[in-house]
From TrEMBL:
Keywords: DNA-binding, Transcription, Transcription regulation. InterPro entries: BlaI_family (IPR005650), WH-like_DNA-bd_sf (IPR036388), WH_DNA-bd_sf (IPR036390). One of its GO terms (biological process) is negative regulation of DNA-templated transcription. The lineage of its organism: Bacteria, Bacillati, Bacillota, Tissierellia, Tissierellales. This is Transcriptional regulator, BlaI/MecI/CopY family. It comes from Peptoniphilus harei.
Amino acid sequence: MEFSDGELLVMEELWKGDVLDENGEIQALALSKILMEKYDISKTSCYTFFGRLVEKGAIARRYPRYTIRVLVSREDALLNKQIEAFHKLFKGSLLNICKTFLQNEEVTKEEIEEMKKLIDSFDEEEKEDQEEEKDDTKSN
């Protein structure tokens, strides 16, 4: 999920949680006042951001008093951003990430050994999965 700068300001205020009531909600008017005071954003812009965030599924709006509730956690938004960057910058290739990182950063022998162990553990899991698939195929 991609957020504009203004949408991100709204989400950051909501994620902090200190503006939310005991039900995890806030009225749009109250949130717009906070954003206007803190960031000098116009009321119209605030409601534009709210509308976009509703369309994106990041927040829910409930009537009668235009009450807002967060639907997307900071962690989920960050994970989505990381996945987008991974695909955009490295064409979805873990090998490209490793090459780029190893060429541009100092890596200790200990870190290299840890990476090898990590790869080996994934390799072992893959072998186990393949064995299970063979067993499942034989039993059917």
